[in-house]
Design goal:
Helix content: 25-40%
Number of helices: 3
Mean pLDDT: 81
Order of helices and strands: HEEHEH
Shape: globular
Number of strands: 3
Strand content: 15-25%
Structural class: alpha+beta
Largest sheet: 3 strands, mixed
């Protein structure tokens, strides 16, 4: 059954936060996931959104990954280089892609 498939995939997925926003007179649910479980979330995203929209009576559900932004003083945190994926611009762009 499809619900047992989701249960198996959800075993190692957890949320970091969720918030409700009002968009065009409808409520939307924004669910934040830690970046390390994001790959798994992407796999089951379609089914998971359908289940959550059913549960929260037709609210829109949006998934976003929590990403880390490192500022110019990243060496203070003991890092040698700042990966491109941690820059402000790339983090904002990838959030929009989510």
């Amino acid at each position: 059954s499809p619900s047992s498939d989701i249960k198996a995939d959800l075993r190692d997925v957890y949320m970091s936060s969720a918030q409700e926003l009002e968009v065009k007179n409808r409520l939307a649910l924004v669910v934040h996931f830690p970046f390390r479980v994001w790959k798994t979330v992407r796999k089951i995203q379609g089914r998971l959104i359908r289940e959550l929209e059913k549960k929260f009576n037709k609210k829109h559900v949006v998934f976003v990954a929590n990403r880390t932004i490192l500022d110019k003083n990243f060496r203070r945190k003991g890092l040698q280089v700042r990966p491109r994926s941690r820059t402000l611009t790339s983090v904002h762009e990838s959030i929009l892609e989510d």
